[in-house]
Design brief:
single chain; 188 residues; alpha/beta; two-stranded antiparallel sheet; 7 strands; 37% helix
Length: 188
C-alpha cells in the first residue's frame, strides 16, 4: 500500500486540475492505496507569504506543521497545477517555501557543502497543464517547471518519478482530456 498526498494549486474547483487530482485519487483508492487531496486554495490550508527579519526566529505555524505531518506520512507526493508565466502558481511556490524547511526537509551539516536530505525514500509525481504549446515549454524555454521540481524536491531527497505536461490545453477537446486522464490513471 502506498500513501499519496495530492497537492492541488488552482483556484477553480471545477477546472481540469481538480479533475486530474480526483482521477488520481479514485484510481489510488481502487488500487488499495491511501490518498488524500490537499487543495492549497482551501481556506483551511491558507498560508501567509513567507516573511521574516531573522529566519531563526520564525514562529511555528500550525498549518505548516499539519502539512509537514501529511508529507511525513506520505510515500508519494502528487503535484497537480497549471503552469502560469512559465512557473508554478505563487500559492504552490509559497507552500514549498514555508513547508520544505530546514530540519524538516533538509539539514545543514557543518563542513559540508550540501545539506543532509531528510525526505529520502519519498517520490513525487507532477501533472501540469498549460495553454502554451509543448514545443515552446520544452524546447524554447527549457521546461523550467520540471527543472524547478527536480531541483527543489531533489534537494530534500524526494525522487521525481513522473512529470506529465498537458500543453496547448485551450485547443484540446473532451476526447483528448479523457485520454489524458487515462494517462494519469496509468501512473498511479
Amino acid at each position: 500500500m502506498v500513501r499519496h498526498l495530492i497537492i492541488t494549486a488552482h483556484p477553480s474547483s471545477k477546472g481540469f486540475t481538480h479533475k486530474i487530482a480526483k482521477a488520481f485519487l479514485h484510481k489510488a483508492h481502487e488500487n488499495g492505496d491511501e490518498a488524500e487531496i490537499l487543495d492549497l486554495y482551501n481556506p483551511k490550508y491558507k498560508l501567509d507569504f513567507l516573511k521574516f527579519e531573522d529566519i531563526s526566529k520564525i514562529k511555528e505555524d500550525k498549518i505548516v506543521l499539519e502539512i509537514q505531518d501529511k508529507i511525513r506520512l506520505s510515500d508519494n507526493l502528487v503535484f497537480v497545477s497549471p503552469v502560469w508565466w512559465a512557473m508554478v502558481p505563487s500559492i504552490l511556490k509559497n507552500m514549498i517555501d514555508k513547508v520544505l524547511t530546514p530540519n524538516f526537509a533538509y539539514k545543514y551539516v557543518a563542513g559540508k557543502a550540501m545539506p543532509k536530505k531528510l525526505l529520502v525514500g519519498k517520490t513525487a509525481q507532477v501533472f501540469m497543464t498549460c495553454d502554451a504549446p509543448g514545443f515552446y515549454i520544452k524546447l524554447i524555454i527549457g521546461n523550467p517547471v520540471k527543472k524547478f521540481f527536480k531541483m527543489n524536491l531533489g534537494f530534500c531527497g524526494i525522487k521525481l518519478k513522473d512529470y506529465l505536461l498537458l500543453s496547448s490545453k485551450r485547443t484540446r477537446d473532451e476526447k483528448y482530456f479523457d485520454a489524458w486522464l487515462k494517462k494519469v490513471e496509468k501512473k498511479v
